[in-house]
Amino acid sequence: MDDDKTNGDETSPVDADAADEPKFVIKDESEDDEPKKSGRFLREIAIIVAIVLGLMFVFTQFFFRQYVVPSESMEPTLMGCTGCSNDRIVVDKMVYRFSDPEPGDVVVFKAPTSSWDGTWVSPRSSNPVVHKIQDVLSWFSLSPPDENNLVKRVIAVGGQTVQCTNADGKGVTVNGKPLDEPYIDKSMQVNTNTETDGALGGGSCYGSDFGPVKVPDGNVWVMGDNRSSSADSRAHVDDELQGTIPVSDIRGKVRFILYPFSRFGGVGSVNPQG
User: Fold this and answer.
1) Residue 99 falls inside a structural domain
2) Which of 45, 115, 126, 136 could covalently link to 239 via disulfide, CB atoms 3.0 to 4.6 Å apart?
3) Whole-model pTM?
4) Is the dihedral of CA 115, 116, 121, 123 positive or negative?
5) To 10 degrees, the CA torsion angle through 137, 101, 88, 131?
6) Contact indicator for 255, 114 with CB cutoff of 8 Å
7) 69 in a domain, yes or no?
8) What is the mean pLDDT of the chain?
9) Among the options 73, 138, 230, 269, which is catalytic?
10) Amino acid 1: pLDDT
11) In the prediction, which pLDDT does 22 show?
């Protein structure tokens, strides 16, 4: 009978209701959290890096900085030579903000005149972009400063007169009084004298006569502990400062040797005048 026939295109009431209902898809909560966690992790890393760099900047500029000893002029106190593990030293930059350098202090200073530069070459790249990057890195002690830094021991300060005459056998004198210098390895000076056929390390001065030089106020006279192998104030008496170093050019006082670990330890100040 016709009443029993149904149209194939017609939808039953149950099917229509099902089609109108919204469809829900169940997602794993970890899928939504993953980008958030990743972004949060990157922000945390960025904050940590910024804090570390900030601390490095403050410490480098105002408190402490690391330097490398480039030569043997301060042996045996500090080691430095071609092909060896040069001492990495830590310099106290705060001490001379509140006090003046004293005789016996081991200091790092910037070459005050061109006569000190010798064979020094800037560590900066000739590429202007790389050069600027190196300048920025130096603010954080991740690159060496673009200046000729040297390390020596303070022997005399402003107002004092320093000199040495081999003939009198006194060695270096300050205000006419001979110094007591236990940091000098005398056998090293004798060996240098022998190795150079008497050209270096001879006499009570372990070098040529010099002085008298009166150190100007605000300046210091510096010498290397390896007296016969040090181009210190003696080698620059003919420049405009007579070999002396302005206190303003001193970068800090050497406090300790950081590396190599076999030489880790403090660097003391021995007053040769005392």
Assistant:
1) yes
2) 115
3) 0.81
4) negative
5) 20
6) no
7) no
8) 88
9) 73
10) 47
11) 55
Residue 4 has pLDDT above 60, yes or no: no
**153 DSSP β-pair partners:** 106, 223
Task: Say if CB 207 and CB 237 are below 8 A apart.
Answer: no
Which among 71, 93, 152, 229 is annotated as catalytic?
A: 152
Q: Which residue's structure tokens are 């001979």?
A: 178
Q: Show the tokens assigned to 126.
A: 């000739």
**Per the structure, how many domains does the chain have?**
1
> For residue 254, which phi and psi values (nearest 5 degrees)?
-70, 125
Contacts of the segment 178-181: beta carbons below 8 A, 24+ positions apart: 179/155, 179/272, 179/273, 180/272, 180/274, 181/270, 181/272
Among residues 62, 55, 73, the alpha carbon closest in space to that of 252 is found at 62
Q: Is the pLDDT of residue 18 over 80?
A: no
| pLDDT (average), residues 88-92 | 96
Which of the 8 DSSP states describes residue 10? -
Alpha helices in the chain (DSSP H): 13-20, 29-58, 95-98, 128-138, 186-195
Paired residues of 181 in beta bridges: none
What was the pLDDT predicted at 6? 44
Give every CB contact of residue 132 below 8 A, 6+ residues apart in sequence. Answer: none
36 tagged catalytic: no
In sequence order, the β-bridge partners of residue 90 are 66, 256
Tell me the two tokens of residue 222.
């510096």
Per DSSP, what are the bridge partners of residue 162? 174, 213
* pLDDT surpassing 80 at residue 82: no
Instruction: Indicate which CATH number applies to the domain containing 228.
Output: 2.10.109.10
C-alpha span between 35 and 43 (Å, rounded)? 12
Do the domain assignments include residue 82?
A: no
**93 an active-site residue?**
no
Q: How many CB atoms lie within 10 A of CB 69?
A: 22
Please indicate, yes or no, if residue 31 is contained in any of the structural domains. no
The total of other beta-carbon atoms located within 10 Å of residue 105's CB is: 26
Is pLDDT above 50 for 223? yes
Does residue 79 carry a pLDDT above 90?
yes
